[in-house]
Design a protein that fits this description.
The chain is an alpha+beta fold. The chain is built from 4 helices and 12 strands. The protein is elongated and about 60 Å long.
Length: 200
């Protein structure tokens, strides 16, 4: 059985990727039995009337069905080279390109963040997309106030790096970081359109 944390990560990835993978009209998703709509509140959210109308066995059946559907969806996304994992993180792409700030926005809207490698395994997970699609991707790393000194987006010092030979070299002119197709990093201006890779 999937842990609740992994379940939520996979669900977030699925919602991020669904628009790029849907062919024609998206499949209609039916709520589990016992969920109803409250028309007077104007919000399309379900609730469980009477607190617990579903007995434990019914709820477990609904959970098993959802896990099965998520497992199938995960298989399709792996086949389409749209997701990969490393450690406890799921890395995903929607197959589109954007500048750095749009990439940040798209990942946040999906409930994730821009891909940020913190070790060689995570760097390899991001490299999977960069190699598969023969393109570059932005990383969640930026130049600090000190030129040529880089940090995570939250200001934390980098504990893992994989700079290309003689990089970073922008000296204050290139504030973002991209991954090359060999997995090494380069400092770059933030206005280039690169492959969107998010982490969940």
């Amino acid at each position: 059985m999937l842990s609740p944390r992994l379940f939520h990560k996979i669900l977030g990835v699925a919602l991020f990727l669904f628009p790029c993978c849907a062919q024609g009209k998206p499949a209609e998703i039916h709520p589990p039995p016992g969920f109803v709509h409250l028309p007077e509140d104007g919000i399309d959210e379900g609730f469980i009337p009477g607190f617990l109308p579903l007995v434990d066995n019914e709820m477990e059946d609904v959970i098993r069905q959802l896990e099965h559907r998520i497992s199938r969806l995960e298989g399709v996304l792996r086949l389409e080279k749209m997701i990969t994992t490393s450690g406890g993180k799921i890395f995903a792409t929607n197959g589109k390109r954007a500048d750095f700030h749009t990439t940040l926005k798209k990942c946040k809207e999906a409930g994730g963040s821009i891909a940020t490698p913190r070790n060689a395994g995570e760097n390899g997970a991001i490299l999977y997309f960069v190699k598969s699609f023969n393109t570059y991707a932005y990383l969640g790393i930026e130049e600090s106030l000190i030129p040529s000194k880089f940090q995570l987006l939250d200001g934390t010092q980098l504990n893992y790096t994989n700079w290309h030979l003689k990089e970073p070299s922008g000296k204050g002119e290139e504030e973002c970081v991209e991954m090359y197709t060999d997995g090494t990093w380069n400092d770059r201006r933030c206005n280039q359109n690169h492959f969107i890779v998010c982490q969940f």
